[in-house]
Protein: Solute carrier family 12 member 3
Organism: Denticeps clupeoides
Amino acid sequence: MEEPQKPNEGLNLSTLSGQYAASLGMNGELEGKFHFTDTDNYSYPNARASSGSAVLNGYDTLDAPPNYDFYSNTEVFGRVRRSRPSLFQLHSNIEDDAFPPPLYEEANGEGQGSPQGPEDEEKSAEPAAEPTRFGWVQGVMIRCMLNIWGVILYLRLPWITAQAGIGLTWVIILISSCITGITGLSTSAIATNGKVKGGGTYFLISRSLGPELGGSIGLIFAFANAVAVAMHTVGFAETVQNLMQENGTSMVDPINDIRIIGVITVTCLLAISLAGMEWESKAQVLFFLVIMISFASYIIGTIIPATPQKQAKGFYSYRASIFAANFVPSWRGPEGSFFGMFSIFFPSATGILAGANISGDLRDPNIAIPRGTLMAIFWTTLSYLVISATIGSCVVRDASGNINDTMAFPTTVDCQGTACIYGWNFSECINNRTCTYGITNYYQSMSMVSAVAPLITAGIFGATLSSALACLVSAPKVFQCLCKDRLYPLIGFFGKGYGKNDEPYRSYLLAYFIAVCFILIAELNTIAPIISNFFLCSYALINFSCFHASITNSPGWRPSFRYYSKWLSLLGAVVSVVIMFLFTWWAALIALGVVLFLLGYVLYKKPTVNWGSSVQASSYNVALSQAVGLNHVGDHIKNYRTPSFTIPFHHSLFCVLFFVAQPQCLVLSGPPGFRPALVDFVGTFTKNFSMMMCGNVVIGCPSPSAIESASSESHVAWLNKRGIKSFYNGVVADNLRTGVQMLLQGAGLGRIRPNVLVMGFKTTWRKDQPSLVDNYVGIIHDAFDLQYGVCVLRLRDGLDMSRRMQAHTNPVFEACSELGLQEGAPPANASLDPDAVLAVTQPHTVFRSRQEKKTIDVYWISDDGGLALLIPYLLTRKKRWARCKVRVFVGGEIQNMEEQRAAVMALIKKFRLRFHDVQVLPEINEDPQPEHIKKFEDLIAPYRKNAINKDGEAHEDTIKECPWMVSNEEMEKNKTKSHRQIRLNEILLDYSRDAALIVVSLPVGRRGVCPSPLYMAWLETLSRDLRPPVLLVRGNQENVLTFYCQ
């Protein structure tokens, strides 16, 4: 077993398999600060290498294969965390840079591999204690079911059935469950869109909608849960007080008895909570068993034949006539209406967020929250339906309870009520409205029906105490996460956690204090509607969060839970708000007023947090859409604006993280009409959600004709006519590379600026002047230097259509070259007629056709931050590519294929990309065929120095005149990489002949070490003889994919 690299040791490639390895000095130390080896690699102090590079890539290199550590923010005890090499390491010639950037550039700005001090080593000597984690059953489903069930189930559901009838009661139950079910689906979608941490509802809303709405709803939701503790505790205390009163027992008086019992009860619940989540969870399981036993006692009681005492109270076991009579409504009293019954029942359907509120204590929140929440909604809905149907089939609406109200013979003559056919006459109490039993009059009907009546009382105790305990745990957990984010002043003190579970003891005490204050009031009838509205407000915002994230079309919105609808979420949000006002309009206004006040405070303070919220995505989309929309607006003197540019002194890291995952593309198209396939391809995956800019470089002096040629409005008109949502930017420069440098540094505005350079493959590089080839490769180097990702597209028939369109050639791009420029081309004003391009019929390209059921093959050989995966994912979101299946290929070893496939599959699953086909290629480690090696050598032969000097003597004048020539030393240093491109092409031909698109990692040539002709030979060899389009992709080595919510 290989020992982990020590922090202060340099990278030693001699430990890796391969023909070429890092050399050591005489004393065993690496020679020099940056030591060049025969594998075109460097040794860096404090660098941590992946020994799997040679295995998964097929050769020794710093270019690392995909690895979980590159995307994870956590450390694993006993294992050195691996880090992805930066673009500087892979591409730059370190000897030319006196001030190199950090070895490993991470998005958070923290370098990896820094030496550890003695204190750090002492801290990491022992692993941290493993906190208690719960699965979906114990952590979510049981908790939600207990919070949903309450006293309404036992004491009000039979009465609602009597009022509305079984039919309308089922309608009420199903409508309530639909609302909570839609919210559950929205919650599941949000919870599976990345790794969820602690904070529950607040975390989900704030990371989706941002701190403004998230912070306000988090504060009132935590407060509502704290007050709900008092509500449930008072419900329990009132039940106990009633039992004491029935038995003639009292401590002081009814009100003070409730206060005393309530304070004692909530203190006991606090003790259970402070004992830890494990004890609290065990208590919840105990309450769950008590409720299950009470249900069983009730069901058994409905089957047992009724005794005369129970018949006098209206219970006759299952009777079809009773079911028929109770199926229709019988409204009574001031609350006797459909919505009156609905408003009473709906609070009993809430509580679905109890599991999500302890997200930090779940073993796998992404699985537990959707499965547990939806199963809880299903089982509780089923229980409500069953109890409503059974109680309505067994018990009549009115009964006197008098055992003497019997008849000698069952008859309906001069007898009112369903009980007449069973020999009981309750006509007198029905006419006088003095009946004390029956489901209309007796709230304890379930106790009367039950086989063992005290078990129903135990069920009431279990339902109230479990709900109080769930709220007492939820409130501190939510409030702790809010305190840690420091969105509001004076609350950070309560965010401190203790123990292995990071228990918020201070927040527990605060919630306990709030609960005791409301318990002492002992009258919550006016406060209860406000709390219900706060919960409904949370439901509305959760549904709106899901809708908003979906409608913004952000690439970061990739929930693994697919069974949701953005329009259902919007419906759930609207219905929740409507119900708020229908319940209590003034309470709804109070709730909305509090939300708006807290929202205004956060907007005023502008906290420096960045969570990649949908509000940010919406702002980006609106700005981009409005800016692109100006392409259709002509200039007018009345709308003249003086352009003004400001160079900022500094920028904030918090403002850039969200847009990193947006592939904002600068397309080197020249006149867009000359390369429609390149424009169509990029426009496919950037349309309606990301920036695209077509760049055109006109070579020449900045004369009026040249400027007119570069900025011709006909180019924008062509894009609009083709339906491409893109900017256009034309510049005039002395040469192509200078012009592209201007575009790379000056394109865009603010955050709407490109981060990916897309260019066509230069098919005529062997015919062009060497200086043009050097410029082409230099553009790629410049893009890497400026931290751009690079994509190179190659089609079998080429990209340039200028001759086919019978248009004059733009001097920037030589006819039939894919990005070549003729340095000595005629002036710009002599050749280009943009209006002629606009007049030509729009050409058809492969990227405008609906793709067949083929595959998009991704060869994820080198980990570049995930751009090679993100682009195929964005393509499959479009209708034209929706039928294509994505296959991901990685390197590997034949003896460990299944383990390596499972590891890559698990990583892709965390990205939520819905790619399910991963194939490991052990043959990547094999040597290429000799005939293919000979073909490559023939390809590069004209550029070898010995081709100019046949006698083998290289003159200094020749070297100075031809710096782009490839020496024998350079060929030997890059031999392994050259063979790798040859072998990859063989694999592409074997596996991807019939693919719709091939995406493969773009090789990185080290500047000053890999000559331009050799690099072009790599690209030529890698992509030749392939029928499908080939996209060579290299990100900027920073993450564009994440499995976190923020």
Q: What stands out?
A: The first strand starts at residue 35 and ends at 36. Confidence is low (pLDDT under 50) at residues 1-60, 98-125, 636-660, 806-832. The radius of gyration is 36 Å. The chain has 36 helices and twelve strands.
